[in-house]
Amino acid sequence: MNPAAELLVDDPIWLILIKVVVIFAIPIVITILMIWAERRIIGRMQQRPGPNRAGPFGILQSLADALKLAFKEDIRPSMADKWVYFLAPILAAIPALLAMAVIPLGGEVTIFGERTVLQVAEVPAGVLVVLACASIGVYGILLAGWSSGSPYPLLGALRSAAQVISYEIAMGLAIVSVVFYAGSLSTSQIVEAQMQQGWFALLLAPAFLIYLVSMIGETNRAPFDLPEAESELVGGFHTEYSSLKFAMFFLAEYVNMVTVSALATTMFLGGWAAPWPLSQIGDGVLNTGWWPLLWFALKLGACLFLFIWVRAALPRFRYDQFMHLGWKVLVPAALGFFVVVAVIRVLRESEGVSPTHIMIVLAVLLVIVVAISFLFPDRAAPQDEGPPVSGSGYPLPPLDLKVPDVPVRRSVSATSEQKPAGIAGGTRRGATRSVGKADDSASSAPASSPKEGGDGTV
């Protein structure tokens, strides 16, 4: 049993309750601040002020929006499944809050005379707890779309579920590389391993980059915000929700952002440990007491800022591009890097293997990858072989189709004397059209007919 687990075992009930309340309040408070910060930062990036009316610098705008949602009418569709429709938002939000229980926010501290660590629970397989909580959230999305009794939420739920599951695979493979390199599934022991060996964001940089992309896709954030399709004017799986139920889905999205950012801080950025220059001050004095909570908050804020930056900088992906990136790029890359980490781990623990041998093996693997990329190049862009053919089997109109020119009608301006008496009260446009037609018919009539005399009599 590690030291963190030994201290948590002796925690009294009142201290556990305080930790539970705080660990549930932190994501909600961060959500309120995150909504405000996102709108302000994106506003500055787009050269506009953002919210600036409710409170100083608009900081109370998130609270005003929450009150507005609370007082909206709660509507339930007549075709909806009552209990599933009610439980789906809860099932989407609660697991994201539970995942924060195994994240270590700091080291050993003293709270009201009791020695403890800033963590609710120390589980030997803490990483699996976080992944399991993220997986349960998919059920909330699916049940919300199915229970609404409408086809559009159902389609949005299927898209969101496919998106979340696809990117959870790449995220899990990136985390497995960290677990294999650290030799433990415990979140606190992974932090201690980084304090001894260095940040895994540098040592396992490919896994870190894969995790960053996967966490944006797994949380349905821009540029991967694809619960709703381009051809639909609805919001996806939560289309039929309103009032507090919709607020629960909104809360679940931002709490998931906090959870995956906290996991990124723990797995790759050294957790609550101070960064390298500061960790050497006074023999690690900045890694004791309440200082680690500050370092954890700064790293968490940097990860959350990444969500805002990516949303403001990148355009939205098409769904096929998004799934191609997940299944054909991230998953193979994460699996291949895991094999490389496993080889390094085995060679490092073997006798008679030096770092030079490990570098030689990595160089050989790199040469093999480059050779494969040259042997199987990307397919060239298709040449222009004529007019495109519809892939659905429907005929296409000819590309050289020209619309015939419409002859311009001769306009005749009508005066007040030319207006017939029957349309004296009509508009000038109608009178002009009528007079023009009369003039055309009069001019096209022959001067005399066989039945008429020279003077026009029959």
Give the secondary structure arrangement, pairings included.
Layout: H1 3-9, H2 13-45, H3 61-71, H4 82-98, E1 108-111, E2 114-117, H5 126-147, H6 151-182, H7 187-197, H8 200-203, H9 205-218, H10 243-268, H11 276-279, H12 291-313, H13 319-349, H14 355-375, H15 428-444
Total beta-strand segments: 2
Q: What shape does the CA trace take?
A: globular
Structural class by helix and strand composition: mainly alpha
For the sheet with most strands, the description reads:
2 strands, antiparallel
Mean of residue pLDDT?
80
**Low-confidence parts, pLDDT < 50 over ≥5 residues?**
422-458
What share of the residues lie within helices?
55-70%
What is the element string, with H for helices and E for strands?
Answer: HHHHEEHHHHHHHHHHH
**Strands across the major sheet, in which order?**
1-2
Please tally the helical runs, counting DSSP H or I stretches of 4 or more residues: 15
Radius of gyration: 34 Å
Share in β-strands: under 5%
How far the N terminus sits from the C terminus, by CA atoms, comes to: 124 Å
Explain what this protein looks like in three dimensions.
This protein is an all-alpha fold and 458 residues long. It has a domain at 72-102 and 123-367. The protein has helices spanning 3-9, 13-45, 61-71, 82-98, 126-147, 151-182, 187-197, 200-203, 205-218, 243-268, 276-279, 291-313, 319-349, 355-375, 428-444; strands at 108-111, 114-117. A two-stranded antiparallel ribbon has the order 1-2. The protein is globular and about 95 Å long. It starts with a helix and ends in a 14-residue tail after the last helix. NDH-1 is composed of 14 different subunits. Subunits NuoA, H, J, K, L, M, N constitute the membrane sector of the complex. It comes from Actinoalloteichus hoggarensis. InterPro entries: NADH_UbQ_OxRdtase_su1/FPO, NADH_UbQ_OxRdtase_su1_CS. Pfam families: NADHdh.
